[in-house]
Structure formats: structure tokens, C-alpha cells
TrEMBL record:
The chain crosses the membrane at residues 47-68. InterPro entries: AMP-binding_CS, AMP-dep_synth/lig_dom, ANL_N_sf. GO terms for biological process: fatty acid metabolic process. Keywords: Ligase, Membrane, Transmembrane, Transmembrane helix. Coiled coil: none annotated. Residues 2-208 form the AMP-dependent synthetase/ligase domain. This is Oxalate--CoA ligase. Pfam families: AMP-binding. One of its GO terms (molecular function) is medium-chain fatty acid-CoA ligase activity. Belongs to the ATP-dependent AMP-binding enzyme family.
Length: 216
């Protein structure tokens, strides 16, 4: 099992089955049309679902190439060297890392950047202004996604450009799951109404480990 990030409370243990993981990586591969020619440098820890599922296992399923950072961890000064050396076609990161790369670009831009199919952002909200700056700086569409450990990572994502517009400030549409916005009574809400995000799918855990109260 993996642990939640602890965004809303203390981290909770989440049991994930082989079926959960398999379904999740299939959804990710389908959403981004990952294939054997794709290459990515993983700059996120593999003990959380973002790096593990979106970076590593989805690439394995697609037959793509995974590169670990030459410095052994994320380094803004070496990231683009690694990306260019191995001909990476995409990468996924949290907004904080995107911001670091953007600030480095503003201070000392690279002579050139790799030709990326897309840049993925997940695990926290990405400010629309930052998304626009990333696209202008690195010449690739930035696709924001929405994920949680309980869903073996990805639940929604903005589409690749050939499948429709990607909207700054939006997490896109469901990828392989059923999703609804419900009120406190469990009733479906109309559009433009605030409620609770509820999901159902093969990638969703059956419950937290040793935490019956959280499973209610």
C-alpha cells in the first residue's frame, strides 16, 4: 500500500491491488497516447503515486523509456541537459517544480529546449498564469490533471491538443472513471454548482488500511 500526501489530514495507508494499478496505468497511457517512442525523465519520488504511476509504470506499459536524473534527484540546473541528452518527449511534475524550472528559464534560459509532445502537471493546482508562461517558455502544451492516492493516481486530465482545447484552471475530464459532483445528501448537482467530487472505477481502492472511521 501507499500513503496519502496528508493534504486534508494525517497521511492514511491506502491498499492498492494489482487491478487498481493496472487500470490506472491503462487510463494514463490512453489519455496521453503514450507509446514506445516516448521518453521521460522522472524527477518525482517513486514512493508516491505521481512519480510511480504517471512517470514510471505508465511508461513501462507503453513500452517507453524512463530516465532517472543524472544527479540522482531533481536538479533544475541539470534537468534540461538530461531531457536533451536522451531525447525526452514529455515530463510530469508538481507545480512547485514547474515554477522552479520557469524561474531558471527567466534567469538563464537554455540555448534550446527539446521538442516535447506535452508537459503534465498534477498533485496541486497550477495557476493559469504559470501554465501560460510554461507554454511560452518551453513550447509545449501544459496539461493539468487531477489525482489522488485512493484512485491509484489519475482521475481526470485535460486532453492532448488534437482531442480538444486544454483549459487553464481546469482539471479536464474523467479518464477511465465515473465521476459526479454530489450534494451532502448524495444527489447529483447541476453544472456550475459546488459539491463533493465522487468517483467510481477499477482504479479506486476499496478502503483505507486500519481506519474504519475514514471509510464511512
Amino acid at each position: 500500500f501507499l500513503h496519502t500526501s496528508g493534504t486534508t489530514s494525517r497521511p492514511k495507508g491506502v491498499p492498492l491491488t494489482q487491478l487498481n494499478l493496472s487500470a490506472s496505468v491503462q487510463h494514463i497511457v490512453h489519455a496521453y497516447e503514450l507509446c514506445s517512442s516516448d521518453k521521460t525523465v522522472i524527477i518525482l519520488p517513486l514512493f508516491h503515486v505521481h512519480g510511480l504511476m504517471a512517470g514510471l509504470l505508465s511508461s513501462f506499459l507503453a513500452g517507453g523509456t524512463v530516465i532517472l536524473p543524472s544527479s540522482g534527484r531533481f536538479s533544475a540546473t541539470k534537468f534540461w541537459d538530461d531531457m536533451k541528452t536522451y531525447g525526452a518527449t514529455w515530463y510530469t511534475a508538481v507545480p512547485t517544480i514547474h515554477q522552479i524550472l520557469l524561474e531558471k528559464h527567466k534567469a538563464k534560459p537554455e540555448s534550446s529546449y527539446p521538442n516535447l509532445r506535452f508537459i503534465r502537471s498534477c498533485s496541486a493546482a497550477l495557476a493559469p498564469a504559470v501554465l501560460q508562461q510554461l507554454e511560452e517558455a518551453f513550447g509545449a502544451p501544459v496539461l493539468e490533471a487531477y489525482a489522488m492516492t485512493e484512485a491509484s493516481h489519475q482521475m481526470t486530465s485535460n486532453p492532448l491538443p488534437q482531442h480538444g482545447p486544454h483549459k487553464p484552471g481546469s482539471v479536464g475530464k474523467p479518464t477511465g472513471i465515473e465521476l459526479a459532483i454530489l450534494d451532502d445528501s448524495g444527489r447529483l448537482l447541476p453544472t456550475q454548482q459546488v459539491g463533493e467530487v465522487c468517483i467510481r472505477g477499477l482504479n479506486v481502492t476499496k478502503g483505507y488500511k486500519s481506519n474504519p472511521d475514514a471509510n464511512k
